[in-house]
Amino acid sequence: MLSLTKQNILLANGIGIAQLGFGTYKITEYEVAKQAIDSAIEHGYRAFDTAQLYGNEKILGRVFQENPLKRDELFITTKIANDKQGYDTTLTAFEQSLTDLQTDYVDLFLMHWPLKTTFFQTWKAIERIYEEKRARAIGVCNFHQTHFELLSTQANIKPMVNQIEIHPYLIQQSLTDYLRHEDIAIQAWSPLARSSVNEDPRLIKLAKKYQRSPAQIVLRWHIQQGYIVIPKSATPARIIENSLIDDFQLTADDMNLINSLDEGFRTGPDPDVVFEKDGF
Ligand code: NAP
Q1: Rounded to whole angstroms, how far apart are CA atoms 247 and 2?
Q2: Is the pLDDT of residue 29 over 90?
């Protein structure tokens, strides 16, 4: 059995991040987290994505602590919650994340959403955390090009990552072109469109051709575009399935076929709306 992609993506500051990581949204019970993360680690996953918003940092901290892997063998990402944005509040909330995750640094610290009134101050605090070497890399989520352009008027450090919703129904072509041009790594959230790819007859047909599952086809599509991808599953069989995507290649025609499914469909909120409303 071939294992999970060993491919690392190098961020603009030279830090490497596994191209296939693991999402933890909605994993909020210790037993579920324990089973999922132990199973993920056993099958080669090393990069884990959490957020203050998910309410699971404490649980994850405990699970990581109980696992025999050393801290520097893991890549831990967390994000500042919207209601903690601002300079001092970001610094305080970051300390709490470190305490909860039982670590003295994170590998990647992200701003969860762009918010109109606080994002400059929040980014200043994130820059300070990076300069103090308590985050090995820093970035944002859910930023459109306009948000980067605005942030750049006051930022000293350019975000190294933009974690955004991407799946076959939302390919975000112009934004991803911009991010590539700016050397900002693209991390895809809801890469499986929250599992709906599995019921799509067009993807089921393609999956049959490659003798794979639709989820594996879609994850492979992400990987071939150079995206960092963080599928979430609490189901050990799916955790393994999602890791087995390294031993086949989609043809250019099939990549295009998946691109053609784009319909601008979001499973989550539009960042422009969140920005203007200063929250959800
Ligand atoms: P997702 O990974 O696209 O989908 C997760 C869903 O798909 C779960 O219901 C899971 O079910 C199911 N699933 C996973 N693998 C499967 C497979 N092989 N076959 C069939 N179903 C499968 O969606 P997501 O959790 O929204 O996104 C992934 C991660 O991105 C999150 O966990 C979080 O870490 C991050 N995220 C970030 C933001 C942001 O604003 N920055 C927003 C949303 C998400 P089971 O668990 O029951 O197996």
Answers
A1: 7
A2: yes
Ligand 1 pocket, CB under 6 A: 23-25, 49, 112, 141-142, 163, 189-195, 198, 213, 215, 230-235, 238, 241-242, 268
With a cut of 60, say whether residue 1 has pLDDT above it: no
133: left (phi > 0), else alpha (psi -120 to 50), else beta?
left
Distance of alpha carbon 178 from alpha carbon 269, whole angstroms: 21
Give pTM, 2 decimals.
Answer: 0.98
Average pLDDT over residues 227-243: 98
Q: In angstroms, what is the span from residue 200 Cα to ligand 1's centroid?
A: 16
CA distance 221 to 215: 10
Structure tokens at 194: 């929250």
| Predicted local distance difference test score (pLDDT) of residue 7 | 82
| Mean pLDDT in residue range 35-46 | 97
- Asked if 183 and 12 touch (Cβ cutoff 8 Å), the reply is yes
Which residue among the candidates 54, 130, 169, 227 is catalytic per the annotation? 54
d(Cα 77, Cα 135) in Å, to the nearest integer?
Answer: 9
Residue 45 appears among annotated catalytic residues: no
Q: Which residues pair with 80 in a beta bridge?
A: 111
